[in-house]
Amino acid sequence: GDWTYEEQFKQLYELDGDPKRKEFLDDLFSFMQKRGTPVNRIPIMAKQVLDLFMLYVLVTEKGGLVEVINKKLWREITKGLNLPTSITSAAFTLRTQYMKYLYPYECEKRGLSSPNELQAAIDSNRREGRRQSFGGSLFAYSPGGAHGMLSS
């Protein structure tokens, strides 16, 4: 169904009782607000709100976004999020959502990689030419703004 903005946020906060969840989400949302790219909708995946908290925890545990792309660890991430592994585009979707909602935060808080390294990882991943190829413009990540790039 089509949830309201408030319901999506409420769901995200209530996915489990981990006190770190609220702490993380509050921090993430205020960080994104401050950098001028407020999160005004929660991505939906497999008909449920995408758990940004768990996604961040799983990806950073594995060394961050660039590591996950380079080592192709998306299947584990998908499992960790309890998403059906049958979603063929899961890796692409998760990567895209992570880049939009979480990568700036990862850079700021953890410094696990730089946007240049991310671009290189995406390029080499794309060069392998598996499955469909996606246009380069989608990945123009600039710390300053380009937040309109993935709004659907």
UniProtKB/TrEMBL annotation:
SMART domains linked to this entry: ARID, BRIGHT
One Gene Ontology term from the biological process aspect of the record: regulation of transcription by RNA polymerase II
Primary location group: cytoplasm
Transmembrane residue ranges: none
Ranges of residues in domain ARID: 18-110
Keywords, sorted A to Z: Cytoplasm, DNA-binding, Nucleus, Transcription, Transcription regulation
Alphabetized Gene3D superfamilies for the sequence: ARID DNA-binding domain (1.10.150.60)
InterPro entries: ARI3A/B/C, ARID_dom, ARID_dom_sf
Gene Ontology cellular component terms for the protein in this record: cytoplasm; nucleus
Assembly and binders: Homodimer. Heterodimer with ARID3B. Interacts with E2F1. Interacts with GTF2I and BTK.
Functional note: Transcription factor.
Record-given protein name: AT-rich interactive domain-containing protein 3
Native organism: Neovison vison
Gene (name only): ARI3A
